[in-house]
Amino acid sequence: MSNISYNPYESAQAQFDRVAEQLNLNQGVRELLRQPMKEFHFTIPVKMDDGTTKVFKAFRVRHNDARGPAKGGIRFHPHETADTVRALSMWMTWKCAVVDIPLGGAKGGVICDPHNLSLAEQERLCRGYVRQLYGQLGPFSDVPAPDVMTNGQHMLWMLDEYETVSGARYPGMITGKPVGMGGSLGRTEATGYGVVYVLSELLKNEGIDIKATTASLQGFGNVGEYAARMYTELGGKILCVSCWNQKDKKSYTFKKEDGVNVPELASIKDSFGSIDVEKARSLGYDILPGDAWLSQDVDILIPAALENQITPAVFPQISKSVRVLCEAANGPTTPDCDPLIQERGLLLLPDFLCNAGGVTCSYFEQVQCNMNYFWSREEVLDKLKYTMTKAFAGVYDLAKSQNMYMRDAAYTIAINRVANTVKLRGWA
Ligand code: GLU
To answer: Which end of the chain is more exposed for a tag (fewer CB within 10 A), N or C?
Structure first.
């Protein structure tokens, strides 16, 4: 492993600066967009089941809301940092802009490991988060959603706290809610399905038959699982899945030469995406070290876990057979890998385009909540596919016509949209 430690906020700023320079953005716009507009750092005291009080550190960062209410998930993670949340909030701005939905970018986080909290403690933590930020969150200002280790139940507790304090119903205040409680059909699958909608468009445009491809996946949370389900439904083969094991506090790669059985693996994972090693072994999976997913002879790599997973130190481990890097996670590749990706001629699906399906469906959820009229799953997924395909085409066509790197093309479209709004609003 490399001993360089990567700060995601510096990575997000480096990516932004590079394209801001190419676009010749004026100084004011550049200064405004390379940092968040607002930040909240706070503590949440939680009464634990044993009667003690534990104090959790939490963040909410609003990067930019020029194009609409700020939007972005809340993560629960023991290694959460302010800089990670800052980076993620920036990426949310570009994500909403690249798919052209009328939302800005935000992100939140709590330093905690929900594995170690009872459900009642998690509920008090969620309610505490909303109480501390009350007045800052709302359907027309800042709208949270699930992210790493948070789910629909957490969102519903947060909504309930918000509505209890405000004394009225605001279903559009938060997204990713359970279906039947203001949630949208298709939201759970949306990020993973969206990844495969853009992946299949890329393969089609490059003349590659998805049925003839194999992939290696890192991460088996909500995004990884549903990306794997859709990819295998379309005929692709997932050779292996790498994921974190909560019990052993390390990662393993679960491999089957004939391809993993996605529903089977899903049936032996816990609610945070950790696969049971013993059960997997008894089902005939080879159990390899966590980083083995990177060096498999496959066509497609799908990092769907956390940021900073692909660095120049591990890049040489990527098999020569790999043709596509499909960034389902936020920020999985460090910026110093960009020249290596280009040298190798890998086809890249940049993160904030690739995983924009989740927030796109969150937008649909808000629209449905505002109308108080809910669409069928089919209608939601049709609209999702349309939006993702259109966004992909915009980025791909720009990259092809200008001989531009895909990440730069996605940034060019997103930054231009946000910068234009900022200028028209008279902010810079
Ligand atoms: N957490 C998801 C993301 O990183 C979804 C955000 C949202 O729906 O607001 O894109």
So the answer is: N
